[in-house]
Design brief:
This protein is α+β, with helices and mostly antiparallel strands. The chain has a domain at 27-105: Nucleic acid-binding proteins (OB fold (Dihydrolipoamide Acetyltransferase, E2P)), CATH 2.40.50.140. The chain has 1 helix and 7 strands, in the order αβββββββ. It has a 5-stranded antiparallel beta sheet with strand order 3-2-1-6-7, with no helix packed on it. A two-stranded antiparallel ribbon has the order 4-5. β4 (66-68) and β5 form a beta hairpin. The longest helix is centred in the N-terminal third of the chain and has 20 residues, at 2-21. The termini are far apart.
């Protein structure tokens, strides 16, 4: 009886340890900031998917710090038109951002000639 209990324990311990170490499933995108709501802590990003555009609404946890060139930025520093790279995941309440990195800014190009 003791051997069976020991074998069962040996089989269950690695499975439980592996389940705890697995990173949360995530996805990533690159796109342009459409809106930023610092009070609701949300960001909407427009990104291309195939031949279509998609707007992704993300919740931003309070502990998440936006970065740009390795420096931390407040959420209020993001403006519509900023190009961002976002890592996010699914939660019961919706999509949650894990990282937000500002990689550039769109220019409108008005007044330029080709």
């Amino acid at each position: 009886m003791t051997r069976i209990a020991l074998i069962v324990a040996c089989l269950l311990v690695p499975a439980a340890a592996g389940a705890q170490q697995a990173p949360p499933p995530h996805d990533s995108l690159r796109g342009a900031v459409r809106t930023v709501d610092p009070r609701a802590r949300t960001v909407a990003v427009t990104t291309g998917v195939g031949m279509a555009l998609r707007v992704v609404q993300l919740r931003v946890p309070t502990e998440l710090r936006v970065s740009a060139g390795g420096a931390a930025l407040p959420l209020t520093a993001l403006q519509p038109g900023d190009i961002v790279r976002v890592s996010f995941g699914w939660r019961p309440a919706g999509l949650v951002a894990y990282t937000i990195e500002r990689v550039g800014r769109m220019t409108d190009g008005a007044g330029r000639s080709p």
